[in-house]
Amino acid sequence: MVKGVRGVEEGRVPPTAAEVVGSRKVVAKAAPKRILVVDDSPTERHVLNDMLTKSGHEVMTSDNGEDAIRKAKALKPDVIVMDVVMPGLNGFQATRAISRDPETRSIPIILCTSKSQETDKIWGMRQGARDYIVKPVDRDELLEKIAAVA
Fold first, then answer.
1. pTM score, two decimals?
2. Distance (Å, whole) CA 122 – CA 125
3. CATH classification of 31-149 is 3.40.50.2300, yes or no?
């Protein structure tokens, strides 16, 4: 056993970077990802783009479900962050199409929406989403979810 490292001498595993350090939670820095952000709101796209690029990720954007499907096939992002309420093809429909297409089914999708009902989350996961986050988005929570699915 290693002496001098708290917890190790008792056989416990030392804390990871994502665990509580003091009174502040530290988020482990993940490798940069190529992320497709899909939202019909220019403001939401800007906020998510800014949040993700400042965290070192490469961000591409789309403002509707149809374009998201095309970009998923062409760009093969590491992760898609998808709004649900959009005109035309909504986020549930776009998620279903992307997650069932052999060309894009391996791309994880995180639904990012103001729809906070448990039934919405269940329905989104049934459409093929890997995770679900409710707006307003907490930066650390989003980064953790991206690291977990990518």
1. 0.81
2. 5
3. yes
